[in-house]
Amino acid sequence: MTVPFSLSQSSLQDYVDCPRRFQLRYVDRLAYPAIESEPALENERRQREGEFFHRLVRQSLTGISSERVGKLANTPNLQRWWENFLADPNLQDLKDLGSLHAESALSAPLGNFRLLAKYDLIVMREYKALIYDWKTYRKRPRNEWLAARMQTRVYRALLVQAGASLNNGDIFEPEQIEMIYWFADFPNDPARFAYTPAQYERDWSALLGLANEIQIALQRPQDGFPLTDDEARCLYCPYRSYCERGVYAGKADEAEAELEADESFNLDFEQIGEIAF
């Protein structure tokens, strides 16, 4: 049986939401048999625009002029998001406030797996590390929902575990870390999540527990990956036909956060900040 080479916030979120989805996507590596949401073309376009917006921001942060980058914002959504990005003084001051690490990846051992995360931006400012993540959601999620997501928990905990490579060899203390979600359609309402030692201990213990569960499930795949009891999640799952849980997809604007693609880790692992096994 194929074992996932690494775990990420996306794969762990899939496991938490539905172990069966995790198995089909990351263990069996099955092709998507069903569209995730309706209308399919609109959702696909929105996802592509979101990916392209990330590219525009990365180019801007690496020194390419805003005027030059802005010429590539060639759709109404991209134009609006780019204008909102430029109009946010907090973001425009980032270059002057500390060192920037755009599109950085970190990894660390997690049980028998490797935990890997790709960060949109990490800002090193004095004695703090600010994690920025760009979101192009149609709706602004609740902070409580974001706080419980694997992304919030993985990104902060992994920066404690493996962030020394970005900090002159010094390990980050949890209280030095803050995660900020910036919403391209809600630029004046970012979500900010500070960190504490107690939260870190809770998160890392929970992540180790999930890795152990997955390892055990891989040893008995016939019954180790049960279906979710929350069938509403199946509306937005591309594997629902495998599970005989419906044919029609849910509406994209009702489940946008469920549709985020897994990170693409076509990376040179020699360049990833990590701690060794």
Short note summarizing the structure:
This protein has 277 residues and is an alpha/beta fold. The protein has 10 helices and 8 strands.
Folded structure, characterized:
The protein is an alpha/beta fold. It has a domain at 41-212: Lambda Exonuclease, Chain A. Helices cover 39% and strands 20% of the residues. It has ten helices and eight strands. The chain has helices spanning 9-17, 19-27, 40-61, 66-70, 76-87, 89-92, 94-97, 143-148, 150-162, 197-219; strands at 37-38, 99-110, 113-125, 128-135, 177-183, 186-194, 250-251, 273-274. It has a six-stranded mixed β-sheet with strand order 6-5-4-3-2-8, sandwiched between helices. A two-stranded parallel ribbon has the order 1-7. Helix 3 (40-61) runs parallel beside helix 5 and helix 9 packs across helix 10 (197-219). The longest helix has 23 residues, at 197-219. The two termini are 23 Å apart.
Terminal Cα separation, in Å? 23 Å
Q: In CATH terms, what is the fold-level topology of the domain at 41-212? A: Lambda Exonuclease, Chain A
SS content category: alpha/beta
Inertia-based shape: globular
Mean pLDDT: 85
What is the number of beta strands?
Answer: 8
Number of helices: 10
Largest sheet: 6 strands, mixed
> Cα-atom Rg, whole angstroms?
19 Å
Helix content: 25-40%
β-strand percent reads 15-25%
Low-confidence stretches: 261-277
Reported CATH architecture of the domain at 41-212: Alpha-Beta Complex
Order of H and E elements: HHEHHHHHEEEHHEEHEE
CATH class call of the domain at 41-212: Alpha Beta
